[in-house]
Fold this sequence. Notes:
Blueprint: H1 2-24, E1 28-36, E2 46-51, H2 62-75, E3 79-83, H3 93-101, E4 110-113, H4 116-121, H5 123-133, E5 136-137, E6 141-147, E7 150-156, E8 181-184, H6 191-197, E9 201-204, E10 213-214, E11 219-220, E12 231-235, E13 238-242, E14 260-268, E15 272-273
Helix pairs in contact: 2-3, 3-5
Amino acid sequence: MLKKGAMAFVGGSVLARSGWLEATELPMVRRVIISHPLLPPAFDGLRIAQVSDLHAGVFMPPERLERVRALIERLAPDVVAFTGDQLDRRQVDADLFVHGFAGVDAPLGVYGILGNHDHLASPRLALAAMEAVGITPLVNESVTLRRGSSSIALAGVDDLDAIPGWGPDFGIVGRSDAPFHLLLCHQPGGWRAARAAGADVTLAGHTHGGQIALPSRGVNLARLSTPYVAGPYQRGDQILYVSRGIGVGAIPLRFGVPPEIDLVTLRRGPASVV
């Protein structure tokens, strides 16, 4: 009995150490190609670095944030999109984020939205932190990206679990006459509203891909709250892509779901994701 208990303790320790290392390593780069028939030819090949769920804080110190930023810069994307939870939950986490990401840049701009943890810290502080590093906040706002005479709309909505007085306005998607609409929405649970509003492609995060998963046994914690756990989903020509993100929440472990940055390339063609 004692031997079994010792073996269980050792096994648990090994799993915990493995999960801790997975949670703190440099994120992998997941390369995704999203094709859509409405994408203007001028934007065929547009590269977007999606950065989700950094959770700047105790388990995401400035030195790791700086390494993540350096990785993004090496990818040389056309656009950088932060899809929420830049901060973990404390107001001081804003300072950590600013220290790690000040000066982040991309040719067609750097944009970001708020997540539920940004609201825990303070939505106004989270917005100020984004602006301080050079991110254009898209909280129920839209911008037009241009290449020559062609354009696409990039919009962002507030979080589904925003504090009172705040909240998402999916109507922002329909306020542009651009032929193609790309939406940033932190929680994938907003995809139904995004589809109804006319979003062609929606980029989300929030789930951490489950953060702890045993794929061989079909175990994934995120399935308890959403059918949209990670990766691509498609309804007709409308596409959702859910990033597994970079940081961790209250539990400082990742197991079976390594951290990632998503390099999304948009192509003109029949709606698909590979």
